């Protein structure tokens, strides 16, 4: 698996580099693979910024498919070139399963700037025996820097594979509180639970009591538990909800297995977009990708 990941990283990186940057990459790659000392390894990670910029990768569908094949759940669609460069350097290490790598990797966080820190967290899912770094991933989730938290929480398969229920629920609720796009939390469909549903509904009650809006992504958190509370929240929000929120409510009720309630709403709904959401929900299409379409269809900006 490691060989396939490093090969895929190189295939993504090399065509996007200038001649000078490619020369640096090849030399740095050989140096790291040969066993660069900790200080030198750290310097190479930092020096990457001289040769790659924070520009979008614009990956093709074929490239994204190669990433998914190399490491299920891995999608660097929203990475920038500098992040890719740094992650590729990290994964080039030949000793990634050894204790000294874990020590060197941890040391990188001490003086890392924001961009370096994001790249380090993005690399976690690609490292062998990645469960070693759960504590470090938890630190990323506690960061007050939105970019750092997003690097571990969004588009990253690490949390769903390695976080326990408490850590997972905290990540989802923090993302909800920060109004991040929950459909980009990999594995949310599979790791809904009664406890996550309860916490989300408690948050909704708190926000309503404070007269604050409730993010439509909250409906992604629901499972079939707490059905009465889910229906009550839908009834409270529905009359004044906009099209996106009503569509999310419909999908959320379906996720909560409240299909009779969805059918009841269908009888009086005239908005074409909400009607499409109802059709999708009743047709069994109420997963994260369906919520992603709400964002796409309404031209909302994503991080």
Written description of the protein model:
This protein is mainly α and 303 residues long. The protein contains 17 helices and no strands. Helix 14 packs parallel to helix 16 (272-282). The chain is elongated and about 65 Å long. It starts with a helix and ends in a 6-residue tail after the last helix.
Provide key terms for this protein.
single chain, 303 residues, mainly alpha, 17 helices
Can you lay out the helices and strands and say which pair or pack?
Layout: H1 2-13, H2 19-33, H3 38-47, H4 61-70, H5 81-92, H6 99-111, H7 114-123, H8 134-141, H9 146-153, H10 158-162, H11 165-177, H12 194-209, H13 227-237, H14 243-255, H15 259-266, H16 272-282, H17 288-297
Structural class, by secondary structure, is: mainly alpha
| Low-pLDDT runs | none
How many strand units? 0
In percent, how much strand structure appears in the residues? Answer: under 5%
Order of helices and strands: HHHHHHHHHHHHHHHHH
* Helix content, binned percent: 55-70%
What profile does the largest beta sheet have?
Answer: none
Mean pLDDT: 94
**Distance between the amino and carboxyl termini:** 30 Å
> Which value, in Å, is the CA radius of gyration?
22 Å
Shape: elongated
Number of helices in the DSSP assignment: 17
């Amino acid at each position: 698996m490691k060989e396939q990941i490093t090969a895929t990283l190189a295939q993504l990186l090399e065509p996007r580099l200038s001649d000078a940057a490619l020369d640096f990459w090849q030399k740095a790659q050989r140096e790291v693979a040969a066993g660069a000392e900790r200080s030198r390894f750290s310097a190479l990670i930092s020096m990457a910024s001289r040769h790659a910029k924070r520009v979008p990768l614009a990956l093709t569908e074929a490239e994204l498919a190669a990433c998914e094949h190399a490491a299920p759940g891995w999608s660097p669609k929203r990475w920038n070139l500098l992040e890719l460069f740094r992650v590729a350097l990290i994964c080039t290490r030949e000793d990634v399963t050894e204790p000294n790598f874990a020590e060197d990797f941890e040391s990188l966080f001490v003086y890392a700037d924001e961009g370096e820190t994001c790249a380090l967290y993005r690399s976690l899912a690609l490292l062998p025996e990645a469960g070693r770094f759960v504590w470090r991933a938890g630190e990323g989730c506690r960061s007050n820097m939105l970019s750092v938290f997003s690097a571990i929480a969004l588009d990253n398969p690490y949390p769903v594979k390695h976080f326990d229920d408490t850590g997972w629920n905290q990540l989802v609720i923090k993302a909800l509180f920060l109004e991040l796009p929950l459909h980009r939390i990999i594995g949310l469909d599979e790791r809904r639970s009664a406890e996550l549903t309860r916490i989300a509904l408690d948050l909704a009650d708190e926000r309503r009591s404070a007269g604050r809006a409730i993010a439509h992504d909250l409906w992604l958190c629901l499972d079939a538990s707490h059905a009465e509370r889910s229906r009550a929240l839908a009834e409270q929000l529905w009359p004044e909800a906009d099209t996106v929120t009503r569509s999310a409510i419909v999908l959320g009720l379906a996720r909560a297995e409240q299909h009779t309630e969805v059918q009841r709403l269908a009888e009086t709904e005239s908005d074409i977009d909400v009607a499409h959401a109802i059709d999708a929900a009743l047709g069994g299409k109420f997963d994260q990708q369906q919520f992603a379409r709400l964002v796409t269809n309404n031209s909302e900006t994503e991080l």
